[in-house]
Queue: 4 jobs
Job 1
Amino acid sequence: MTNLRFVLGALFAAVALTGCATTASTTAVMHGDASRPAQSSGWVRSELYFAVGNEDGTGVIDEARWRAFLDAEVTPRFPDGLTVLDGYGQWRFQQGGRLVRQRAKVLVVLHADSVRPHEDIEAIRLAWKRMTGHESVLWARSAVEVSF
């Protein structure tokens, strides 16, 4: 009986310690549930950059106007969720080389890589340009794997 306890104890310890061992090739495991799978491919992370004010005080879009735009144009198109970050950046005009420093709102949306979200993003960009008179809204996108 003592030998059996010793063998079972050693076996239990070996199994327990195996879970503690790590190597450089270990990858993270994402956990999900039935309604939100552990991992999904075919998603895109879209970032839209909206200028909301130049460093010199011109072109200012106040928080109330931004929120109204978000509520009217963005949320109805992406009701399941989005993220808005405050940013600051700079860029140089190609003609004349003038440097522009701006405050920005960065909108991050994770969505399926399909036609509808792309059309919605283009509609948001167009609505912003109409509202503000700005020439552009930068759109950066990349493929991502998501886990909720």
Job 2
Amino acid sequence: MTIRSIHLARRFFGALNFLPLKKSQIEIVRPVLTESEFYLWSSMRIGDKRHSLEVLARFLALLPEATVSERRAALLHDVGKLQSDLGVVARVLATIVGPRGARFSAYHDHERLGAEMLRKIGSDEQTWRLVGGDVAGPTNPNSTQMKTMSALRRADES
């Protein structure tokens, strides 16, 4: 079994937990996000919110000095999945068959869509660029932005 398969299996079973988040979990998110960002985050499916908290924790373990913008990106990295409006089973199917049809295509394009959503609500540039996988600046793999993007991807894939 590949690392990607393990990641997807964990995400699937984690998505089946429909229990509400604890107040303490919301208290982690609230001070990080702007009012508009918190509204979007609150609109995400419970499994995606739970996953975002896990990604934030792993991201901070990799990059403890992360800025607020970088922390926001960790919490909002899947916000574009709101556009596809797919449930757990449909997401599995979309992963298997690929970007066919509008909703499956939106699911696969969630990074770009999330970046657009965040840009429209006034999120700072670093946050929406990280969510979109579009790090500005030098293409040097040793650049700070590239290291941040790498840490965010590793946190998401763990």
Job 3
Amino acid sequence: MSQSKKQTGGCLCGAVRYEVEGRLRDVIHCHCSMCQRFHGASGAYTKTDQSSINISRKRGLKWVASSLKARRGFCCECGSGLFWEPVDQPDMDPGMEPGMWIVAGTLDQPTGLATIGHIFVSQKADFVEITCGAPQFTEDFHDEIEGDE
């Protein structure tokens, strides 16, 4: 995880703003088919504990159940994708531990974050080429990425 500091972010139009007081995990790029449809290619996500995030402006925040296991938060005014979180289930997958996944591009700069991996590369769009040298995983990483805490 990156250093602990106060980090702010929000959507394109400002109808949603948030603050993170705590650690942010470095960025994992998800290439699953749902992220492709939600983001246009892949989703670049950081992560924090739910208790570390405060959504200070919620006017535009809406949630959609994107699967039986997760929901995604977005701004209904400008369309910006913002969050991803697992739905609390007793039989939750190991890779679906509680927390708030934050679309890294919605953080105010500078973030101090780095890319630490790519997941679901078996589903990546054919026009995407991964060249950064970070670890790649065919499906989920199940806590195998260094720095994912």
Job 4
Amino acid sequence: MAVLLFFAGDGFTAPLLRQEIVRVAIIKGGDGVRIDGDGLLATDEKGEPLRLTLPTQVKRAGGNLSVGGQTVSRLTVASPATIQVNGKRYRGTIEVEPSDKGVLVVNELPLEDYLVGLINCEISSQWPIESVKAQAVVARTYAVYQMRARAGAPYHLESSVLDQVYDGCEIEDSRAARGVRETAGEILTYGGQPIQAFYHSNCGGRTEVAENVWGVRLPYLRSVDCAYCATNPSIRWELAIPLKKLEVLLKGAGIQVSGLREIRDGKRNESGRLIDLTLVSSRGGVTISAVNFRKIVGYTAIKSTNFAVRPATDSVHFSGTGYGHGVGLCQWGAKQRASDGFSYREILAYYYPGALLGQLPGEQGVDAR
């Protein structure tokens, strides 16, 4: 069916301008993207309406885009309902531009709508509601911090673990909406500014300080005891990796370990996590930070830096606890604390000591407790 797609201008976007608007990169790379939906409104880079047949394929064509046989440098699509991008539904508007690695697709939408879509990507909305509310506040705070830090960039956030996991409105539900609604506009601040509200799946018994991961001290990201995440059934993990595979991964990261023979534990910090490891090869020993080693091997493989190493025949065996960098809110710990009767304010005060809970935009913060 042929439809006329046009951009409604200020009459459509004006209500959104009164809210915090976030821009999320949902696709980076690939030769093209499939757009579909009902009641779509679209324009090219000049604001001119486009007549297209839906669904339509948007492809990179040199430094431009090819859309239904037409060439444009940017495509903007909006809808009063949702827009389908490669079969997934998104609220707000979708912008497509050519990039060095294919196409860049950005979803622009109100911050609170973004958070409703995010909750079930990061935790389960069926967890105790106070833990859902805590997740809503930290995700909102993280987003606001990035929105300020990347104000002039093409987008504020990525939709993966590089920032926060977000999959559009596919898994929104009433409890996710409730957690966002009952904390509407609330963020954590320190010194009058939004904090870097890092969080992770489970800390394995004690959270980590920021300087041990990123080399920067942040006073509200201190290490705290956390026995609460012990209820997580996957708090402990094990992994065996062949030495040959490790050698390939390390060489790919520029670390020369020809004839890798062994990996040894190094020093540990005050939270019990490894600081470094020694890679023993035919060239001798090379020391590498545990944080960098985890990044090279893969965050889902080496789930945390709280692990021990045991050699095996032609392989290395890793056994550890926790999942994630360990800084800030422990999601499984927050779940258990909520089950134990703590409010989201108390949960936030525990994992971000010294931070204040305030209301956007720019209202005076109050102690999170």
